[in-house]
Design goal:
Elements: H1 2-24, H2 26-32, E1 44-49, E2 52-53, E3 58-64, E4 73-77, E5 80-81, E6 83-87, E7 91-95, E8 105-110, E9 113-120, E10 122-123, E11 127-133, E12 152-157, E13 163-168, E14 175-182, E15 187-195, E16 202-207, E17 214-218, E18 224-229, E19 235-240, E20 242-243, E21 259-262, E22 267-271, E23 277-280, E24 286-291, E25 306-312, E26 315-323, E27 336-340, E28 350-352, E29 364-365, E30 374-379, E31 385-389, E32 394-398, E33 403-409, E34 429-434, E35 440-444, E36 449-455
Parallel strand pairs: 2-10, 20-24
Antiparallel strand pairs: 1-3, 3-7, 4-5, 4-8, 6-7, 8-9, 11-36, 12-13, 13-14, 14-15, 16-17, 17-18, 18-19, 21-22, 22-23, 23-24, 25-26, 26-27, 27-28, 29-33, 30-31, 31-32, 32-33, 34-35, 35-36
């Protein structure tokens, strides 16, 4: 409600300013009607209004020599492109883009000319957390969104908005499953359900958003994974990866907790506990170890289990993951890691990108940021990464330019509450997924609910 009220005040102020200046600027703007941008003259920037706001807010950019064809004008907030409504020649009417980064610089680009305002825009993200489904009961029960019980750990979305989850309900004889949540159909359904024996222990999920094919990892057998094809109604099929020779992964370390589809080369990638990275062809299931694990002398890859794994769509050759507290050497524990999958880079191993120093909470530049048992990670289409910061009970965002912020939840305080970024509360969030519009879905494991974070 606070965010909506603030937006209403900003909108009223914007149109008040627009009305007040319309009379005084009438003669000046009338003279500019039909005037084209003149490349022989410089673009001049004078001021913009409002000086602060959030995504989808309206903004007026004043200056000279803009021209009146708004299709020829580009406006950027840092590197994010704004939508342009119109131009009078001396004034551009634009819409603030979503998540442009901290204190964005506004630049106007026309033809080969690019000019930036001296003053920066004060961008404030507006966020709201709501509950999608779940009652707080851990045992899975399908049904309508308001009646279903969920205990999801990992999440992923397809391009159609279907939300997939894996779970362990942890009640009595523990059950494992894969399910689908559809807000459009108001329905939670089971796609695969198994007791603790036989397997699988389903964990990480990945979706090829072009074909809709979903793949789910198997926790304990290196050769086995599961596919769900929407053309077959997502009927589960066991797939067996085929190695040309001995893969060399020790029996005790064949925990392939995650799988990720990379649009960079169209392959699936998974990692074992010993650090070996395996590439799998999604159609033939031919598998190759592309990076040796820590059992190999001189390996640059740490030993240890994972919490999460994801591919950056802006740089689809980047395989990201979070490492467990059992990682060794110790400096790799609870870290955000990245591996460059390109053949000329993969032998360089992975690198840790956030600060070492154990559990904690610190926002800021990624190299200084600290997390507390970070689990699943996912990216939006702009390359912003969202982290389920399990131990801090909050959701963190790593912007495309490497700045970490807390976007929802109260660091170090567990609870259950919907609302804005400051008042919202989580209890050990585990999984995250991001749809095509940039909305974030969260497996709020401790609360046995699925939540939704909308950032505008």
């Amino acid at each position: 409600m606070k965010g909506n009220a603030l937006r209403q005040v900003r909108t009223l102020a914007f149109f008040t300013a627009l009305i007040l200046c319309s009379t005084s600027c009438k003669d000046e703007e009338a003279a500019s009607v039909g005037r084209d941008y003149d490349p022989s003259r410089p673009i001049t920037l004078t001021s913009f209004y409002p000086v602060e706001g959030g995504a989808r807010d309206k903004i007026l950019l004043d200056g000279e020599n803009f021209g009146t064809d708004h299709n020829q004008i580009k406006v950027y907030f840092n590197n994010k492109k704004a939508a342009i409504v119109s131009s009078s020649g001396n004034r551009i009417y634009a819409i603030v883009p979503r998540l442009p980064g901290e204190n964005p610089s506004i630049s106007v680009v026309i033809g080969e000319d690019s000019v930036a305002y001296d003053q920066h825009f004060n961008y404030t993200p507006q966020a709201q957390v709501t509950t999608v489904t779940g009652s707080g009961d851990r045992e899975f029960v399908p049904g309508t969104l308001d009646q279903a019980h969920v205990c999801a750990k990992y999440l992923e979305l397809d391009a159609e908005g279907n939300l997939f989850m894996t779970w362990r309900d942890g009640v009595g004889d523990e059950k494992f499953g894969v399910g689908r949540v559809s807000e459009a159909e108001n329905l939670v359904t089971s796609m695969y359900l198994a007791a603790s024996s036989p397997y699988p222990y389903a964990n990480g999920i990945t979706v090829d958003r072009t074909t809709g094919m979903m793949t789910v990892s198997h926790e304990s057998v290196v050769e086995v994974f599961f596919s769900f094809d929407p053309r077959e109604g997502w009927y589960p099929r066991q797939r067996n990866a085929s190695f040309a020779g001995n893969h060399g992964i020790p029996t005790g370390d064949q925990y392939m907790n995650f799988v990720s589809f990379s649009p960079y080369d169209g392959y699936l990638y998974t990692r074992s506990r010993d650090g070996s990275v395996v590439r799998i062809h999604p159609d033939t299931y031919e598998a190759t170890v592309v990076h040796k694990g820590s059992n190999t002398a001189g390996s640059k890859w740490p030993y240890g289990s994972q919490y999460g794994q994801g591919i950056n769509p802006k740089k689809p050759w980047e395989l990201w993951m979070t490492l467990h507290s059992n990682a060794s050497p110790n400096e790799f524990r609870q870290g955000l890691m990245v591996l460059d999958l390109r053949p000329e880079h993969i032998d360089k191993g992975f690198r840790r990108v956030n600060a070492t120093g154990g559990s904690g909470h610190r926002d800021g530049p990624l190299e200084d940021a600290v997390f507390n048992y970070p689990k699943d990670i996912k990216f939006d289409n702009d390359g912003n990464m969202f982290v389920a910061d399990y131990g801090n009970h909050c959701i963190r965002m790593v912007s495309a330019d490497g700045i970490v912020t807390t976007v929802a939840g109260q660091p170090g305080v567990s609870g259950y509450r919907d609302g804005g970024p400051i008042e919202s509360m989580f209890n050990n969030p585990w999984g995250v997924a991001v749809n095509e519009q940039g909305d974030i879905y969260i497996a709020d494991f401790g609360n046995s609910r699925i939540r939704k974070l909308v950032i505008e």
